[in-house]
Design a protein that fits this description.
About 65% of the residues lie in helices and about 10% in strands. It is mainly α. It has a two-stranded antiparallel sheet with strand order 1-2.
Length: about 80
């Protein structure tokens, strides 16, 4: 009985992890195209969730920058 909650959580984690990788790939492939709003529509989540996702990617070392045109990867 109690196991179904764990499976939902595992699925949610997998979905979020997949979204994080996809967000990063989209930004790498099309810098300054993907805005918070465009990513929110693409993934069917809120802009707030995309902002959290971007912050999480930054926390793990991805050098994502933003401009009015969209997100891009900072190249040293």
């Amino acid at each position: 009985m109690g196991g179904s909650g764990c499976k939902k959580k595992e699925r949610a984690i997998s979905t979020k992890t997949k979204r994080l990788f996809e967000i990063y790939d989209l930004i790498v492939m099309n810098p300054k195209y993907w805005t918070c709003g465009k990513l929110a529509v693409r993934f069917g989540v809120s802009r707030t969730q995309i902002s959290r996702d971007i912050n999480q990617l930054r926390e793990i070392g991805r050098e994502i920058q933003s401009s009015q045109q969209g997100y891009y990867i900072f190249q040293k």
